[in-house]
Amino acid sequence: MSLSVSIIIPTYNEEEDIGRTLDALAMLDHDALEVIVVDASSDRTPEIVQAYQDRITGLRLLRQGDKPGVSAARNDGLRAATGEIVVVLNADVFPEPDFIQRILLHYHNAADYVLVDSRVVNLDALFPRYIQAQHEYNLTLTRDELNWTEGFSARLAAIRAVGGFPDDFAHNTAGEDAIMGDRLQASGYRRVADYSIVVPHVMPERLRVYWRQRLGRGRGGAYVLYVHQGRAIDWLAILRSVLGTLFLTALILPALIYAARLIPYSDRGWRDWLPFAWARLLETAATAVGYWDGSREIAQQRRMTS
Fold first, then answer.
1. For helices 176-186 and 70-80, what crossing angle results, to 10°?
2. What pLDDT does 232 receive?
3. How would residue 21 be classed by pLDDT, with cut points 50, 70 and 90?
4. Are residues 103 and 150 in the same domain?
5. 71 and 157, same structural domain?
6. Which of 175, 201, 227 is the last residue of a domain?
């Protein structure tokens, strides 16, 4: 008997990408499927989603509740989901038609959550090309430690049992998804990683969007340390860390060394060395600024509640 599946997609001003994602979902080879889009947009995203009602059976558009952020949107979707298996997608991910059938093989063999691989498809632009090369490089180092990937899926009962996604991360803050995956592992749920399953997706091409995304990762680092791990905020240590990172960024050499490590994962080879170093410099600076910003935000919240 086939397992029922709910796909949850949080959206926030995704009019550029959501249509392509829904096109891919309309081609999925699975009958017992519902697609839940939880939206907080001010652009045309809701109208685009509604236009797919006739193409995707079980498509539901929900307005996000009062709590902001991607985790809160995902939790809204979890509360509305009816499938035995939940797939959590971003609005710029385009799974292949056999994606559901392939992950269900693992659930029929007692998996509780399944990790897959991903591939950036807009590789003509520098920042997506850098992110894909970085992803492939990092996967060689951490593939056995990951608890979250694009195309993540899990048993709905398991996600609910661990409390869903942490929703105390501020807007534009990354890292909350991995915490949920770590909770599943810590609770003894069975992890399966099948990196032969690859989900295509796009990454930001514009500098402003790339900077904001990397900034969010730095902010997320602060929230992981000071909110979820409950550490005391040591401003001297934070200042040393941020200034040290910015100093290394100014030296340029660490970025050149890091970029050289990514060259084997770029089709352009050494032609990408200096462009990748530039992308790394921006990433390092944005992460440091985001970490400082997140730390200040958390400290302010603590003062308001003390």
1. 50
2. 74
3. very high
4. yes
5. yes
6. 201
Say whether both 116 and 229 belong to one domain.
Answer: no
Provide the residue range defining the domain that includes 12.
5-201
pLDDT at residue number 141:
87
pLDDT in tens, 67-82: 888 999 999 999 999 9
Same domain, residue pair 170 and 218: no
CATH code for the domain of 35? 3.90.550.10
Pairing of strands 113-120, 152-155: antiparallel
